[in-house]
Amino acid sequence: xxxxxxxxxxxAVAERLHPSxxxxxxxxxxxxxxxxxxxxxxxxxxxxRLELVDYGCGCMPYRAxxxxxxxxxxxxxxxxxxxxxxxxxxxxxVPVEAGSVDVVLSTQVLExxxxxxxxxxxxxxxxxxxxxxxxxxxxxxxxxxDPVDHWRWTSSGLRLQIERAGFVVTELRGxxxxxxxxMQLLQDAVLRKIPGLLRPPLAxxxxxxxxxxxxxxxxxxxxxxACTFVVVARRREPTP
Length: 240
Prior knowledge:
Layout: H1 4-17, H2 26-43, E1 50-55, H3 63-66, E2 70-77, E3 86-87, E4 101-107, H4 116-126, E5 127-138, H5 155-164, E6 167-175, H6 178-191, H7 199-215, H8 219-224, E7 228-235
Parallel strand pairs: 1-2, 1-4, 2-3, 4-5
Antiparallel strand pairs: 5-7, 6-7
Helix pairs in contact: 6-7
């Protein structure tokens, strides 16, 4: 007999990595997956030696994307999360030595923390001299408390927030541009009023429209105005 907890985690991971075309998040999740995979392939050595901490890990849905690059992928979260190997303290501190981590991965966490500056400072503390932060968070998105939901960023505001913490942003890419994000928000507003059986086919039509609008958006525009941003950042070198 399967463990229900394992089944729930496996289902959540599958929904993130391989969302159904009838999912209300089909395009957003598919493109976020591809953006994270692309960031890993461009910036991480494929030698399987890296130490990665998944900070605010949830069910660690993107673990498979980073498997070719890391020797150890450890989830860090509060004690209530059974997937967390590293249990964070009340203020969010992670029980690892300073400078001991090659990659901190943070996916859709920053908008939920009460103090983004403190969270990013803890990311910086963990990362070694040549390590990096790979982070995704929202530009435009509906309110989604888990258990809270505090923040949204413009592209320049997110860059400023991360660089103030002591990082240098080496890459910032948008996922789903302005028109696609607008249709996503319209879908979310409309589907709240639609009976359950009608929601999947209507969601599919919206998602196709979202894909079309996003295909018409230039990369430059998308990187400025987006549903989600994926950032790669490195520790700032000290000034001589």
